[in-house]
Amino acid sequence: DDGEEIGRVVEKCLLDWEINNVLAISAGNASSYDAAVSYLGKRWTSTLEMLQVFEKFEIVFHWFENEDPSYIYELSNTCGVLVYADWERVRDVIYFLHPFYESNEKILGSHVTSNMFLEEISDIECHLDNWGKSCMQREEHEFKASQFVWNYMEYWGDVEDSNMLIYIANILDPRRKTHSMEFYFANEKYSYVYTNEGEHMWIKKAEWVVAAIYDLFNEYAGRSGVPHQNANFQTSEYMHYLYHDTSPRGLFHSRKVHFGGNEGRLTEIDIYLNEDGFKDFDGFDVLLWWKLHSKRFPVLSKMAKDVLAIPISAVALESDINADGNLLDDFRSSLSPSMVEALVCTQDWIKKSTRPYKLEEGSTKVAGKILKDNLVEETKGPLTSY
After folding, report:
1. Average predicted confidence (pLDDT) for the chain
2. Which stretches make up the hAT-like transposase RNase-H fold domain (predicted)?
3. What does 22-37 look like in DSSP terms, one character per residue?
């Protein structure tokens, strides 16, 4: 509403002008003043930044208590003097929010590839789990943390409800392959859960994902024009050796597959998954790796390029870590598939330009052009009577 819009404008002005010290903000006689203040209070990124600065002045506030008698008198009649427990709460909130802030910075970067998303999700889940265990006796913190847990579980509670490309993209990272996915599935959520057949649930989840990447590879291979044979995960020798060790302790043991005389029958994806992971180092460029290995994996490299180029977040920057949930564009639900495709193609996120294209300004023009083209095509076609 108007109040939240005022809050966003105030926040944008403060950030644009790099104003770090604000004594007071007055909205005059605006009826939406309270809503604006409420909006700013729910912006967790702003809250974190303010608390980090505020916590550094703890000694200063203690000094005021000893040197300025009016300080204690005035605060006693309002919010009260800050005590040790208040500063502990500040540090607790900083500790709780900081991992979200770090993940937010990574996900909303300029050149982020989708292989990073699974590990960020795993880190957030681990952080929420550890926080929940550590604050069982602090109900005020546990209540606020439970809102984050509820939002997390709503999106990522079940792998079958998640976007499969999140896991496929992580497998297409030559440093990770199936290892990060296995770790994610083999945590407490699945490690002690069994299927009706007595198998570990995490194994079934992992097989489900790997089978999907085999199906996707076959689809790409079928339209690539490159001579190939279909890869069948259910009958491949890779599947036979991949999850032979069902104990959680044996999860990360090396599983070197020996195919004997079957090398000629292996597909690109069999070879890729069977090989040892690429050594990790700072500055590793996953897109460059696939470009350099495109001759060896012609079909798989094409698939990797498409999957890794998918933006891992379509949420606007002003909507991140919001206590009220994601604030989506007003027209998002009414966009046609052709409109979405046009916006994605014109907003090339990998090739960052010096002057970014503003979707808000150009979406109307693009939509009008598509609508005009569709009308022209319809008028050329045969008339249908009802």
Report:
1. 69
2. 110-220
3. ------TT-TTHHHHH
Asked if 8 contacts 42 with a C-beta cutoff of 8 angstroms, the reply is no
Give the contacts of 205 (CB within 8 A, at least 6 positions apart): 159, 185, 190
What residue has token string 């699974």? 118
Q: Which long-range contacts (CB under 8 A, 24 or more apart) does 226-232 make?
A: 226/298, 226/299, 228/267, 228/268, 228/299, 229/265, 229/267, 230/267, 231/267, 231/268, 231/269, 231/270
Grouping H, G, I as helix, E, B as strand and the rest as coil, residue 259 is coil
Q: What is the DSSP letter of 322?
A: B
Q: What is the pLDDT of residues 305-363, one digit of tens each?
A: 888 887 765 544 444 444 444 444 444 445 566 766 666 666 554 444 444 445 445 55
Say if CB 3 and CB 32 are below 8 A apart: yes
Residues 6+ apart with CB under 8 A from 3: 32, 33, 34, 35, 36, 38, 39
CB-based contact 210:167 (threshold 8 Å): no
Domain boundaries, the chain: 331-380
Residues 6+ apart with CB under 8 A from 320: 45, 104, 108
pLDDT above 70 for 264: no
